[in-house]
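If you are new to this repository, start here. Below is one unmodified record pulled from the training split, so you can see the exact layout before writing a loader.
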Amino acid sequence: MSKEIKVPAVGESITEVTIGQWFKKDGDEVQMDEVLCELESDKATFELPAEAAGILRIKAQEGDVLEIGAVICEIDEAGTPGKSEPSQSVEASAKSKDESKPSASQSTGEVKEMIVPTVGESITEVTLANWLKADGDYVKLDEIIAEVDSDKATFELPAEASGILRHVAQEGDVLEIGGMICKIEVTEGEPAASGSSEESSSPGSAVGSGNTNYATGHASPAASKILAEKGMSAESVKGTGKDGRITKEDAQSAQKPAAPAKAENKSAETAAPAPVSGSRNERREKMSSLRKTVARRLVSVKNETAMLTTFNEVNMKPIMDLRSKFKEQFKEKHGVGLGFMSFFTKAVCVALQEWPSVNAKIDGNEIVFNDFCDISIAVSAPKGLVVPVIRNAEAMSFDQIEKEVVRLAGKARDNKLSIEEMTGGTFTLTNGGIFGSMMSTPIINAPQSAILGMHNIVQRPMAVNGEVVILPMMYVALSYDHRIIDGRESVSFLVRVKELLEDPTRLLFGV
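And here is the target side for that same chain:
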C-alpha cells in the first residue's frame, strides 16, 4: 500500500512552492515524521515530514514548482523484504517503552491562536523582534515567549495558554495589530523531561553519532547559493539553524579561512615589505522599528518645517553655587539629588507661558495653543532616542521634577516606558552636554514647534564690569519652526530663559 504525500497548505496567500532540497533519495527507507525535503515559498522555507514509514518514491525533483495539493512523493508502507521484521521489532520495543512510561502531558485538541495585541492608539503595526521560545517548545500560561518592537517601545508577549508553541511569524516580520503571531496546542500537564533524551536515542531519529542528524551541516537553498558565490563549502560553516542547519544568515556572515602563509623568500631580489595585518570584517544589523521611525520623522521635520536655530550663552555660576550650598539638605529632605534639569524645566515653563507661540503647534490650517507645559525630555536608551514627557511641569516643584526625571530615565534605560509616557509633549529639552557637546542645532520633535538644546559647561574668560573673569559658561540653542514662531518670539524666549537661569531667585518669586 502506497501513501501519497502532497504539498501541504502553508499559508493563506501561498499558492505554489518550490522543492529546495531532498534529504532522502528515491528508494530510501524513511521513518514516520522524518523530514524528507525542504519546500520554499515566496515568504519562507518549510520542512516536509514523512506521513508514514516505508520506502520513499520521489515524484518531483529539486527545483520543481508545485501547486498546493500536488503529489510530491509516495511512501510504500509495505517496506522491503528483510526489513519488515526488524522494523516491527523496533516498533514493538518502542511501543512497550511508551506503554511503560507514564504520560506526563496530554493534548486537549484545543489550539489557541495568539494575535498581536493593541499596544497604543497610534500604533498600527509592530515588528517581531525576538522569539524567546523556540518552535515546538512547551510553554506555560503567562510565560514570556517573544519581544515585539513598535515605533515607540518594546513589548513582551506572554503565552495565553499552556502547551506546545507553534511559530506562525518569523523574527523580523512586520505584523499589523490583530495579525496572527503564533499558535499554542493546549495540553494538560507538562511533558516529561526524559522524553527528549529517549527520542534522541531511538532508531531513525539521528544519523551517525552524537547530536547530529539529517539537517546537521546541510545548507538551505538560499544559503547554498550564497556559499557558492563566496566559493565556500558547507563543511567550513557552522550552522545555527534548527538541528544545526546552515541558514542564510550563517552563509552571509561566513568568512573564508585565511590562506596559509607562504614560506618567506630570503633572497634580496624578491624581498618585499610585510603587509599590514588587520581585520577588515563588516557587520550588518537590521534597523529596529524604533530607529526606522526616528529616521523617517527627522527627515520629515527637515523637509516639512521652516526650521531655524538661535543661540545664546548662560553663566551657570549662580546655579552651581546654589547647588553646592543646598544639595546635601535637598537630598536629605527629598531623597533625590538637585540637578540642572529642574532649573531648566522651571525656566522654560515660565518663558513658555510668556511666549505662548513657542508652546503651540500647527494642526492643518489652525494653530493650537496650550495653556499647560508638558515638557519632553530626550533620553538616550539602549535601542535609540526616546522622549518621555513630564506632564504639567509648570505646576511642579523642583523636587517633583527631579524625581520624575529620575523615574522616566530609569524606565527608558530598562526599555519599560509605556506609550502614554512618551506621547504628547508641547516642548522638548535635550542635553547633549552630558556627552561633551559644545554646540549643536537640535531638530524639532514634531508636532511641537520648538526644542531647547543644552550643552557642556566650559570655563571661559568673560568681560564683567570691565574686568576679565573666568566663568562656567554654557551655550544654549533654540530650534524653532519659523512658520509659527517669528524671530522676535524666539529670541525673546531664549533671552528670558537666560535671565531666569542666571538669576534663579527669579524662579522663586515669579519675576
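Two things worth knowing about this chain: The chain has ten helices and 26 strands. The mean pLDDT is 81.
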